[in-house]
Specification:
The complex is a heterodimer of chains A (394) and B (129). By secondary structure, chain A is α/β, with parallel strands linked by helices. Chain A has 3 domains: 167 residues, FAD/NAD(P)-binding domain (3-Layer(bba) Sandwich), CATH 3.50.50; 133 residues, FAD/NAD(P)-binding domain, CATH 3.50.50; 83 residues, Immunoglobulin-like. Helices cover 18% and strands 32% of the residues of chain A. Chain A is built from 7 helices and 27 strands. A 5-stranded parallel beta sheet of chain A has the order 10-17-11-12-13. In chain A, helix 1 runs parallel beside helix 6, helix 3 runs parallel beside helix 4 and helix 4 runs parallel beside helix 5. The longest helix of chain A is centred in the last third of the chain and has 19 residues. Chain B is α+β, with helices and mostly antiparallel strands. Chain B has 2 domains: 43 residues; 62 residues, Roll (CPE0013-like fold), CATH 3.10.530.10. Chain B is built from 2 helices and 10 strands, in the order βββαββββαβββ. In chain B, the strands form 3 sheets. Chain B has a 5-stranded mixed beta sheet with strand order 8-5-6-10-9. In chain B, a hairpin with a 5-residue loop joins strand 5 and strand 6. The longest helix of chain B has 12 residues. Chain B is elongated, with a radius of gyration of 18 Å. Classes of the chains: A alpha/beta (394), B alpha+beta (129). Chains A and B meet through strand 3, helix 2 and helix 5 of A and strand 5, strand 6 and helix 2 of B.
C-alpha cells in the first residue's frame, strides 16, 4: 500500500492486486498498538495503520483489484496473469513491485515426533481466528517460540480467557522484543522457558498433551529433563519466511535473508522489477516495511516513466556477526538504508562499514532487534574505488 | 533501591534505570519524556493501553477491533475484559467511533480502530483528527 501510494504520488497509474477481499494484509489482524511511530509519527494499531493508508490511497490513479490471484508473472516482459471475479486477464506494467510479505514457518518443518492432531497451529492463524473470525481456538494452550507474534498471542489468548501455560524458546535468549516480554508475559505472569522445546505431541483427533524437554546449545534434548503437559493447543511462533516461492526461479534470492536480493532502490535482480517488505527480509517494524515500500514505489514509478534513476552499483558483503543484511547492492543514486540483524546477543559492539570508514556503536544488541543505519548518498562515492561495501560487527 | 525497567511505550524499548535516593527517584536512560512518565507509573500504578475486539451485529465482519486511547490501570484489565465480552454494537462502525463512553470509571473511552460496514454496505474509513 505504501508503495502504491508513493508511486501514485509520482503521477503514474497504479494497479494494486490483492488476494484477500480487503487490503491491509496482516495489519488487519494485528489489533494491538505500537505501529506507525516512525512512518506516521503517531502510535496506531494495525487496523488504524492500514486504514490510514487506505484513506491516503483514495486517489484517481490508484485502482485496487481485490479477490484477485496472480497466476503467473513474466518478470522480463512485466506481464501479470490475473484471475479475479471479473475474469481472467493479463496486465502489462511499466514496472512491477512484488510485496508478497512473509509466511509463518509451518509445523511440518519443525520435525517434532508424535501424533498429528488438530490444535497445533501457527500463531498468525490463531490470531486470525481470535481477532477476525471471533473463534477461540483453545482452552489451555502452550506457545512454542518466543517471536513477537507468539508473545502477542500469549497476551491476546489470556485476555480472551484462555489459560496460557507457558512460552517455550529453544534458544538461550528470547526471540521477541524486550517490550513484548514485559507487556505480554510478565504482566500476566506467563512463564518463559528458555533452552526448552517440544519433543513430542500426542492426541487422537485433538491435541491432548505435549512433551517438553530442555535442550543443549546444539538444540539436542537433554536426557532426563522431559515432562508431559496437558494442553489442547500448541501455538507456534517459529519465525517467518519471506514469500518468494512463485518468483524464486526468476529473481535472485539472498540465501541468508531468504528473501529477494534487492538494491537500496528496492530493485530486484531483474530490471524494472522491485520488491519491498517482508519478502526481502523479515523486518521488525511495519514502519520499516512501509518506508521501504515507499522507496520501491517511487523508483518503480520513475522506471515506468522511462526516467533512469539507477546509478553505479556495488555489492554489499556480510562481515562477521551479521545474519540478516539489507540491501544486497548499493546504488549511488539513492540514500543507503542498512538493516542489520546480529547473529548473537552482544552487550556492546560496533557496526563497521569498512570501505566508508563509518562506525556506529551500540549497547545491548540482540538478534531480535534490527540495527538501522542511514548513509546519505553524497557519502557513498568512496565505494566506487573499492567496488564493494563490507558490513561487519565487532 | 536501584533497578531497570524496559519501557513498553514504543518499539524502541528503552532500558530505563531507576534509582531511589531518599524520597526522590532518579530516572535515566529514557530517550523521550514518555519514558519518564512510564517509569514513574510503573513504580506507582502500572498502566497499559488495552486493545481487544467487540462483537458487531449486522456487520460485514463479526468483530470490530477497539482500543483505549490512553493507558488504563493494569490491575483492572482482567475485570474490564469480562465486561467487554458481554458487549456488542451495531454496524456501521467508523474508525475512531466511541464504542463505550467510559470503560474504567475514570472517563477512558473505548474507540473503534477499524471500520465495519452494514451487511451489503460500504465501509467508512474516517479517522480521528
Amino acid at each position: 500500500m505504501a508503495c502504491a501510494l508513493s508511486a501514485a504520488k509520482e503521477g503514474v497509474y497504479v494497479t494494486l492486486l490483492e488476494r484477500e477481499s480487503s487490503v491491509g494484509g496482516v495489519l488487519n489482524q494485528c489489533i494491538h498498538n505500537g505501529f506507525g511511530l516512525q512512518f506516521y509519527h503517531q502510535e496506531l494499531t494495525g487496523p488504524e495503520f492500514a486504514s490510514r493508508l487506505i484513506d491516503d490511497m483514495n486517489m484517481e490513479n490508484v485502482k485496487i483489484i481485490s479477490q484477485s490471484y496472480v497466476r503467473d508473472i513474466d518478470v522480463r516482459k512485466r506481464v501479470a496473469q490475473v484471475l479475479s471475479p471479473d475474469g481472467a486477464y493479463e496486465i502489462q506494467a511499466g514496472a512491477l513491485v512484488i510485496s508478497t510479505g512473509a509466511r509463518e514457518r509451518p509445523f511440518g518443518s519443525l520435525l517434532i515426533p508424535g501424533d498429528r492432531p488438530a490444535g497445533v497451529m501457527p500463531a498468525g492463524v490463531a490470531q486470525r481466528y481470535v481477532n477476525l473470525e471471533n473463534r477461540i481456538p483453545a482452552r489451555k494452550a502452550m506457545i512454542l517460540g518466543s517471536g513477537d507474534i507468539g508473545l502477542i498471542m500469549a497476551r491476546r489468548l489470556t485476555l480472551e480467557g484462555v489459560e496460557v501455560v507457558s512460552v517455550l524458546e529453544r534458544m538461550s535468549y528470547p526471540g521477541g522484543l524486550t517490550r513484548n516480554i514485559v507487556q505480554c508475559l510478565e504482566d500476566f505472569d506467563i512463564p518463559l522457558h528458555l533452552s526448552t522445546t517440544v519433543t513430542g505431541i500426542s492426541g487422537d483427533g485433538r491435541l491432548r498433551s505435549v512433551e517438553i524437554s530442555k535442550v543443549d546449545e546444539n538444540f539436542t534434548p537433554v536426557p532426563g529433563t522431559s515432562r508431559t503437559i496437558d494442553v489442547d493447543a500448541l501455538i507456534l511462533s517459529a519465525g517467518l519466511l519471506p514469500q518468494v516461492e512463485d518468483f524464486s526461479d526468476n529473481l535472485e534470492v539472498d540465501p541468508m535473508n531468504r528473501g529477494f536480493l534487492v538494491s537500496n532502490t528496492c530493485e530486484s535482480s531483474t530490471e524494472g522489477v522491485f520488491a519491498a517488505g517482508n519478502n526481502v527480509a523479515i523486518f521488525d517494524l511495519v514502519d520499516y516495511v512501509a518506508a521501504e515500500g515507499w522507496i520501491a514505489g517511487r523508483h518503480a514509478a520513475l522506471f515506468s516513466r522511462g526516467v533512469n534513476t539507477s546509478g553505479d552499483r556495488v555489492p554489499v558483503f556480510r562481515g562477521k556477526n551479521i545474519s540478516v543484511l539489507v540491501p544486497g547492492i548499493v546504488d549511488m543514486e539513492e540514500h543507503l538504508r542498512l538493516y542489520i540483524r546480529l547473529r548473537k546477543p552482544m552487550e556492546k559492539g560496533v557496526v563497521v562499514l569498512k570501505e566508508l570508514k563509518i562506525e556506529k556503536k551500540f549497547s545491548y544488541g540482540v538478534p531480535s532487534e534490527m540495527i538501522q543505519l542511514v548513509v546519505n548518498r553524497d557519502k557513498l562515492q568512496p565505494l566506487m574505488n573499492y567496488g564493494k561495501l563490507t558490513v561487519e560487527v565487532q | 533501591m536501584e533497578g531497570h525497567i524496559t519501557c513498553v511505550i514504543c518499539p524502541v524499548g528503552c532500558k530505563v534505570s531507576v534509582r531511589k535516593e531518599g524520597v526522590q527517584y532518579t530516572i535515566e536512560g529514557n530517550r523521550c519524556a514518555r519514558g519518564e512518565e512510564y517509569a514513574r507509573n510503573e513504580l506507582m500504578m502500572p498502566k497499559r493501553i488495552l486493545t481487544t475486539s467487540i462483537g458487531v451485529s449486522n456487520g460485514t465482519l463479526p468483530l470490530v477491533s477497539v482500543k483505549t486511547p490512553r493507558p488504563i490501570d493494569r490491575a483492572r484489565i482482567k475485570e474490564i475484559m469480562k465486561e467487554i465480552k458481554n458487549l456488542s454494537i451495531a454496524a456501521p462502525v467508523a474508525v475512531g467511533d466511541t464504542v463505550v463512553e467510559d470503560i474504567d470509571g475514570e472517563g477512558t473511552p473505548l474507540l473503534a480502530t477499524r471500520a465495519v460496514s452494514c451487511n451489503g454496505g460500504r465501509e467508512k474509513t474516517t479517522l480521528p483528527t
